[in-house]
Amino acid sequence: MTRLLNSMRVAETGTPPATAGFWHRWTQGVRKIWQRSDWENFAGSDWPATILDTEVTDDFHAKQGRSTGRWVLHRGDRKLSVYLKRHYRLGWWQGLLAALFPKRDWSPAFQEMRHLRWAAARGLAAPKVVAAAEFIGPRGKLQSVLAIEELA
Asked: What is the distance, to the nearest Å, from the Cα of residue 99 to the centroid of all Cα atoms in its chain?
């Protein structure tokens, strides 16, 4: 089961990025968040605020403003293993376009999520997306994170 949080919520104001004015997106920033219904049970309700700084369990690789790594989460006797793909520094022009047109998928995380869901809908073997976030602004900054289930 999947859901879109508050139709792409903004953390502080509760205003969706598309309805938050450009000036708000440019000066304060917004968060575009998608998650599977069980994700918060494992990652916690504050995951958007901490996910970019979270230490991954193993298989960590970092270069040129991005990192990937395996993160194993436990909730009681249940376990969820995901790969986190984090992008810390994306081009300023992508950040500007994301602030101008927030409904589009400007970050690599949301683009890959769209591609994986497209492939799965057509019966192709693809990892399941667990969560994705796009952090737009302030002032042209753009960051993103994608959590995909580990393949068995």
From this structure: 16
Q: Which residues of the chain have pLDDT under 70?
A: 1-19
Backbone dihedral region for residue 124 (phi beyond 0: left; psi -120 to 50: alpha; all else: beta) = beta
Residue 95's φ and ψ, nearest 5 degrees, are -65, -40
- How far are the Cα atoms of 9, 76, 86 from residue 99, in angstroms, in the given order? 14, 40, 19
CA torsion sign, 16 to 19 to 24 to 29? positive
103: its two tokens: 């409904």
Contact 131, 110 (CB under 8 A): no
Cis peptide bond prior to 138, omega within 30° of 0 = yes
pLDDT of res. 77: 92
Look up residue 122 and give its amino acid.
R
Q: What separation in angstroms does the CA of 39 have from each of 10, 82, 106, 149? A: 18, 11, 23, 11
Structural tokens at position 97: 């376009």
Whole-structure pTM value: 0.84
Q: Which of 68, 118, 96, 92 is nearest to 104 (CA)?
A: 96
